[in-house]
Write a structure and sequence with these properties.
Order of helices and strands: HHHHEEHH
Shape: elongated
Number of strands: 2
Helix content: 55-70%
Largest sheet: 2 strands, antiparallel
Structural class: mainly alpha
Strand order of the largest sheet: 1-2
Length: about 140
């Protein structure tokens, strides 16, 4: 809508520059209507004020961030966190990667324990099992 109004000569470059700083699809129509009746300087003032509010909101969200954890009676680590949505989804993605890594290393450790148990019970069988497994590989999570 901003582009069409600019192309039709309804909005000046100064007005368009101010609008694109603050518009998003949900507000574009209303802002174009406002721009038709406001000066470029007035729109620039509104855009600056909106940017100050956005920065204050970001600072407030940053101040509300928290991570708490404790070790419960069973020895498990239990925690909660509060983050802005985009940061929270990044943390969740990182946790999924870490859990996949832990699942892989836990499965490898269980296989190694089973092989060691078999080798202790029957050295000939244990040697054959160890030879068929190939070399041990340490997995390292990439950041």
């Amino acid at each position: 809508m901003i582009r069409a109004a600019f192309a039709a000569g309804e909005l000046s470059y100064t007005k368009v520059r101010a609008l694109v700083r603050i518009a998003h699809p949900g507000t574009e129509d209303d802002l174009v209507d406002l721009a038709r009746h406001a000066t470029g300087a007035h729109l620039a003032t509104i855009a600056r004020a909106r940017e100050r509010v956005r920065r204050a909101d970001a600072a407030s969200a940053h101040a509300r961030r928290e991570l708490t954890w404790h070790v419960d009676d069973l020895g498990d680590v239990v925690g909660t966190f509060r983050l802005p949505a985009t940061e929270g989804f990044e943390v969740l993605a990182g946790l999924r990667v870490a859990l996949t890594h832990l699942d892989t290393t836990s499965a490898a450790a269980a296989d190694s324990a089973a092989a060691a148990s078999t080798a202790a019970a029957d050295p000939a069988v244990g040697s054959a099992a160890a030879a068929s497994e190939g070399p041990a590989v340490d997995l390292v999570a990439e950041s």
